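Late entry, written up from scratch paper. The run itself happened at the end of the previous shift, but nothing got recorded in the book at the time, so transcribing now.
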Amino acid sequence: MGWGITILLCIIPVVLWHNAHPLSYIKRPEQVMLALGQVTGLIGTVMYALNLLYATRLRFLEYLFGGLNRVYIAHHLLGGLALIMLSFHPLMLALRFVSTDIKQAALLLVPNGIFPLQALFDDGHIFHQSVLQQWAIFFGIIAFWGMVALLLITFFIKLPYRLWLFTHRFLGVAFAISALHILFISSDVAKLPGLRWYMLAIVIIGTAAFVYKSLLGRILIRRYRYIVRDVTVVAGNVVQIKLEPVGQPISYKPGQFVFMRFIGAGSGISKEWHPFSISSNPKDSALEISIKGLGDYTNKLTALKAGTHADIEGAYGRFSYVNYKNTQQIWIAGGIGITPFLSMSKDIVGSDAHADLYYSVKTESELINWDMLSEQAVGAPHNLRIIPFIGDKQPSYLSVDFIAENSGGLEGKDFYICGPPPMMQSLKKQLRARGVPATSIHSEEFGMS
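Output as recorded:
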């Protein structure tokens, strides 16, 4: 549904534009260039605005796309597509003059004619209209080159997280400047009422998203304060952090994740926000996060001290057995991908659901909370069955054939997969090849670190 709405929102301005410019009337090369420049500008602006909207983490987006991880995929793709479309916009408009007036083509890409400045604010001035148009073009040039620079940094240059986050916020500034170009330039947006109101709405959505997330996020986005009570290093270089709420506890479903940052942690632990899956029972007031050391940041978390404060935002994600009706389920965890299943295994006891949990690790020493999982399975066999898959004791990787053999077939069951991307891709491909519908396959692909 999310992608359908996204495509529709990108098509609407093209339809409104086409009603005034039927393609049958576009014949000469310069007319083609003009049309391409106008259409790519409209589509690129819509994509840019949606790119800003999809970065907000608003809850309704999860329902449209089926999880925050998929929202971020859309956010990333739209950023790249917006860069392409908005690059074509000035290029096509300039190329239509190349065969007749190269100077005119060049002037569309560099600032000119923006003085006298008083003419900009005096609508009775003889040069008011021409100066206004040149300033509108000037804003477009600033926004374009600013957007190009920022998106190139986003996609192709690896910066420290804090510096990357700082530069990323300027994407909203570039969009706000482009809005001035859109609203004041003498174009179809100004001449066609339907297109004008539509693009105005798009500009408002993009600007509001930027203000909400980047400028007023500390005020508008709900955050919860917790305090670290215990830090334990368990199997497989995994640290389990238990936290108590300082005020109201966060509400979440089993299998969801949160964004978290630690305040005043010391030991080189920064205040960066990171996504972590919850491994505790939603019925408990305490919160438990299980994190595998996979990089500089996560490896430092073993040095966390009791009493450290943490800010938490969320919870997010659709990866939860309670979100789907089918009570016959297969859970497949690979390595640290067991984390959301730890939460679900604690919650499933006493419910109407039954799950076979396949827990795949390279060596037996990497099993996390194995005693707890075993006790739950023994205490509630009608809810949970656990099948360990130890890589160094098996002739091959975990396969759908192995799962079908041990779970009495695949038909009529829902599948939940969380683990390394290659493992998830392979298992999903095998499931689809065995006739399992895509609607019965659920995966968590967000930030395994």
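The longest strand covers residues 224-234.
(Scratch paper discarded after transcription.)
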